[in-house]
Design brief:
The complex is a heterodimer of chains A (about 350) and B (about 200). Chain A is mostly helical and about 350 residues long. Chain A has 12 helices and 2 strands. The mean pLDDT of chain A is about 85. Chain B has a domain of about 130 residues: Alpha-Beta Plaits, CATH 3.30.70.3270. Chains A and B meet through helix 1 of A and helix 2 of B.
Chain lengths: ~350, ~200
């Protein structure tokens, strides 16, 4: 493959991944409202377009048209930096996710993954850690007690749960023997999904994923009722939109990561036996991965409209006294199994 | 000591069992409930396209009915005004002139008939009191307005339009007629006495 073709193909892939993340985040807001409505025996948005499908567009236009307010007492540079960091970090996470196997077109091999770095999982952990800064900076720069409290809660919550999440991933890495997401996804053919080898690890991971994305029951940083929106109390217009959007993109990305790490990624049992061409397989893999992702996004919403918010001390109890010991035990047990059975 | 209420409950502070402490069974139970609701029939009525059906006994804006020849039934007897607990009805009586037989059924009629819709409580006592089957409460809503004086409805808004009469067949039934003429009811005593 020539360099120019390589650059063109990667550029197109990057743009597609970026656009898909944005569109899915856009329609997640619509889906969230629909799911909320359906679970409360209502219909939900149904006025803008057929079935209200243009509602996200209307919301986006509204966000752009709103007056942009920067509080006088705020630190203007940090105030703008906050949502930018939040948006930037959630968008670059999608780079290492293997969306499917490769497409063979004209003798070239086009892998449906922006980049396969051999420390893919560490990259994701690092980027999500930077994501906390978006919230912290925004909350600090607002110079408002609610924002500050929200930012404090966000940082302590994310730091606490990142430990357990990292330990859950360590157990996974021990059983798979690689840090590359592509290798992890490729190893899960047939029924060899990691969920069957790491059920406890998955449970810890999904709880931490809820905490990392600030979703209910861990939405303390932005609790509407007590903190009036938390870290984004002072934000308006598209900067507020960026924060909300970042949350939905985070949800999409963490769904993709959960599908890739534990639910076989683009693999589906029995599909290898059909004898399809590699290109068809790649496209089918893409469909399967997105089906899994959509299920997890629905799961996020399902949980949100079922479970009430934790109290802060309960949150800390759960994180430090239950999840971290549990994940350490999980690491020890996994290590023992790997050592004695040479899986 | 006697308790102040019969509904008091003793709070239980029992320790949670291990399964309860895990919370997961309770969470799964809760999620099953929300999923059931997800597939349930929705109760929403999409309002401007569909309107909710009124109950058959709904009482809305009044109408002053005409008889089968198109003449007004109201004779301005004032029983409705007397019956009205909100004192919303006022009227002025007038004598029918020769040549107006097609307009008014009887020789006395209401030249002015006003209902203050802000005072009206839509109890339906005027309808019950009316001996001439002239006033009815219909299933129409009273329109909104910006100024109070527009809520005083005169004959222009109350009298049944000739070209499209308002349907009160649900309320003008033989049962209601019988009810009105029943001599046992207090509101009929005067009327039945006058018949004798």
């Amino acid at each position: 493959m020539s360099l120019s073709l390589f650059i063109l193909y990667k550029a197109i892939l990057v743009v597609i991944v970026f656009l898909v993340s944005l569109v899915i985040a856009m329609y997640s807001t619509y889906a969230e409202r629909k799911v909320a409505a359906f679970m409360q025996d209502r219909i939900g948005p149904n006025r803008a377009g057929p079935f209200g499908l243009l509602q996200p567009v209307a919301d986006g236009v509204k966000m752009f048209m709103k007056e942009e307010i920067i509080p006088q007492v705020s630190n203007k540079f940090l105030f703008i930096l906050g949502p930018s960091v939040a948006m930037f970090t959630c968008c670059i996470t999608g780079a290492v996710i293997p969306w499917s196997t490769s497409l063979h077109i004209g003798g070239h091999d086009f892998a449906l993954q922006v980049t396969d770095i051999n420390i893919g999982i560490l990259y994701i952990m690092a980027v999500t850690s930077i994501g906390v800064y978006g919230i912290m900076i925004g909350g600090w720069a607002s110079n408002n007690k609610y924002s500050l409290l929200g930012a404090l809660r966000a940082s302590s919550q994310m730091i606490s749960y990142e430990v357990a999440m990292g330990l859950a991933i360590i157990a996974l890495v021990m059983s798979t023997g690689t840090l590359s997401l592509k290798a992890i996804a490729a190893a899960q053919t047939g029924w060899h999904w990691n969920i069957f080898y790491q059920p406890v690890g998955f449970l810890i991971f999904i709880i931490c994923a809820f905490a990392e994305t600030n979703r209910t029951p861990f939405d303390l940083p932005e609790s509407d009722s007590e903190l009036i929106g938390g870290y984004h109390t002072e934000y308006s217009s598209m900067k507020l939109g960026f924060y909300l959007f970042a949350e939905y993109i985070n949800m999409f990305i963490s769904s993709a990561i959960m599908s890739t790490l534990y639910f076989g990624g683009y693999n589906m049992p029995f599909i290898g036996r059909l004898g399809l061409s590699p290109n068809t397989m790649a496209i089918l893999g893409l469909v399967f991965l997105f089906a899994k992702i959509f299920f997890f996004i629905f799961f996020f919403m399902w949980v949100r409209w079922t479970i009430p918010r934790f109290r802060f001390d309960q949150l800390m109890n759960l994180g430090w006294k239950i999840l971290i010991p549990l994940s350490i035990i999980n690491v020890a047990v996994t290590g023992g199994v790997v050592l004695f059975f040479h899986k | 000591m006697q308790t102040l209420t019969t509904r008091s409950k003793v709070a239980s502070n029992k320790k949670m069992t291990l399964v309860e402490k895990l919370y997961l069974p309770a969470i799964i139970g809760g999620m099953r409930i929300t999923l059931n609701h997800f597939f349930k029939k929705k109760v929403t009525i999409s309002y401007p396209e569909k309107t909710r059906e009124f109950a058959p006994v709904f009482r809305g804006q009044h109408v002053l009915k005409r008889d089968e020849n198109g003449a007004e039934r109201c004779t301005a007897c004032g029983l409705c005004a007397v019956a009205c607990p909100a004192e919303a009805i006022t009227m002025t009586a007038a004598e029918r002139k020769p040549g107006e037989e097609a307009l008014y059924r009887e020789e006395k009629y209401a030249s002015v008939y006003e209902i203050n819709m802000l005072r009206c409580i839509f109890c339906g006592l005027c309808e019950e009191a009316c001996p001439k089957e002239a006033i009815f409460l219909t299933d129409r809503m009273v329109d909104t307005d910006y100024v109070r004086k527009n809520f005083i409805y005169g004959k222009d808004k109350l009298v049944d339009p000739i070209d499209k009469p308002i349907d009160v067949s649900k309320r003008e039934t033989t049962e209601t007629k019988e009810f009105k003429t029943h001599p046992e009811f207090a509101h009929n005593k005067l009327y039945t006495k006058s018949l004798k």
